């Protein structure tokens, strides 16, 4: 039997950031690794996820998820290989999805792990296209927005992990027109040439409102919001009657130190009879079986494509997180160990 590791590295939050997170708010520490107790497993992590919502959890404020504790390891979605097990149903060599990322090794109760099939897709895909980001896109578009074939759909942050799936899901289900915004000309080309968006624009090349009106001269019916700010304001102006906005994220203001102004045209919600609905993926776990069935089928058929940005090495984990906040990723950003 191969000897188990006695220590591994983990990222700790040691101070609350004010505005943009500085490297001084975290530390990478060597921590002991213990054999699993009864009903528990020890996992060697292969990949962990870095997500926008993690920025909010660094603040000590009341939210839908508790904040990270100071001087404790951070956590988030991860996939790994079981290297020791004292739990029925889990064997050495099994691949699992769990919630103790930001570290090389994780020991925890087996009921908190979900087995994954790496023959269906690579392990890292269960953090993205087959994971919470994919389910977020699926639930937001179909359950919250109630996509119709007559809809024109606008997606902000459309080259990111969630946005890229939203646009492709809409095309697969026959939406009338799909438009995306992204932060570089290269990402714009990816949206139209590989992901099949009908139109896309670089939001850095001019006012979002003007570029959206040019891309959707007949207006939009669904807006999937990953950005907030000027993108939401532009969507409100372009909405047709009874438009629906899925408010998934507002990354443009996550590091703001002062209150950000709301869109200046919110009164349009009244006359256009719009619906703006916030969403959290945790409210839609009941869709998981159908989501996996549909998305696995679309991956197998080649209808659905995805990209990942993989940053190798746990020592580069915090830099990967900051890069994700800057929009340096194409598709899902993960850290490989």
Compose a concise summary of this entry.
By secondary structure, the protein is an alpha/beta fold. 25% of the residues lie in helices and 26% in strands.
Describe this structure in words.
The chain is an alpha/beta fold and 337 residues long. It has two domains: 7-128 and 307-336, Quinone Oxidoreductase, Chain A, domain 1 (Alpha-Beta Complex), CATH 3.90.180; 133-282, Rossmann fold. The chain has helices at 53-57, 132-144, 161-172, 185-193, 208-215, 229-238, 268-271, 288-301, 317-326; strands spanning 7-13, 26-32, 40-49, 72-73, 78-85, 95-98, 105-109, 114-115, 152-155, 177-182, 199-202, 220-225, 239-247, 275-278, 308-312, 332-336. Strands 3, 5, 6, 7, 8, 15 and 16 form a seven-stranded mixed β-sheet that branches. It has a six-stranded parallel β-sheet with strand order 11-10-9-12-13-14, sandwiched between helices. It is globular, with a radius of gyration of 21 Å. The mean pLDDT is 93.
Mean pLDDT value: 93
Task: Report the structural category.
Answer: alpha/beta
CATH level-3 fold name of the largest domain: Quinone Oxidoreductase, Chain A, domain 1
Tell me the name of the CATH homologous superfamily of the largest domain: Medium-chain alcohol dehydrogenases, catalytic domain
Summed up, the helix count is 9
- The strand count comes to 16
Tell me the β content.
25-35%
CATH top level class name of the largest domain: Alpha Beta
Shape: globular
Give the helix level as a range of percent.
25-40%
- How would a crystallographer describe the biggest sheet? 7 strands, mixed
N-to-C span: 22 Å
CA radius of gyration is 21 Å
């Amino acid at each position: 039997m191969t000897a188990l590791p006695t220590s591994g590295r983990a990222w700790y939050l040691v101070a609350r950031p004010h505005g943009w997170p500085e490297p001084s708010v975290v530390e990478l520490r060597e921590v002991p690794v213990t054999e699993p107790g009864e009903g528990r497993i020890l996992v060697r992590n292969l990949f962990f996820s870095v997500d926008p919502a993690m920025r909010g959890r660094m603040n000590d404020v009341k939210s839908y998820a508790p904040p990270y504790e100071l001087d404790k390891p951070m956590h988030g979605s991860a996939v790994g290989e079981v290297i020791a097990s004292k739990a029925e149903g889990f064997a050495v060599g099994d691949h699992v999805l769990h919630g103790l990322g930001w570290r090389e090794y994780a020991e925890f109760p087996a009921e908190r792990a979900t087995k994954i099939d790496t023959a269906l897709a690579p392990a890292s895909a269960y953090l993205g296209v087959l994971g919470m980001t994919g389910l977020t896109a699926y639930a937001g578009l179909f359950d919250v927005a109630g996509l119709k074939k007559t809809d024109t759909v606008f997606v902000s942050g459309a080259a990111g992990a969630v946005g890229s799936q939203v646009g492709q899901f809409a095309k697969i289900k026959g939406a009338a027109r799909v438009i995306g915004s992204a932060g570089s000309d290269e990402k714009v080309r990816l949206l139209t040439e590989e992901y099949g968006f009908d139109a896309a624009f670089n939001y850095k090349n001019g006012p979002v409102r003007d570029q959206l009106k040019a891309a959707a001269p007949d207006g939009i019916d669904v807006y999937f919001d990953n950005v907030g700010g000027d993108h939401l304001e532009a969507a409100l102006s372009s909405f047709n009657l009874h438009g629906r906005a899925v408010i998934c994220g507002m990354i443009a203001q996550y590091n703001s130190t002062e209150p950000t102004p709301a869109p200046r045209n919110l009164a349009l919600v009244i006359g256009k009879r719009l619906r703006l609905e916030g969403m959290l993926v945790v409210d839609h776990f009941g869709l998981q079986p159908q989501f996996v069935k549909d998305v696995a089928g679309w991956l197998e058929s080649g209808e659905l494509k995805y990209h990942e940005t993989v940053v190798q090495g746990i020592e580069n984990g915090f830099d990967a997180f900051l890069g994700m906040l800057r929009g340096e990723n194409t598709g899902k950003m993960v850290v490989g160990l």
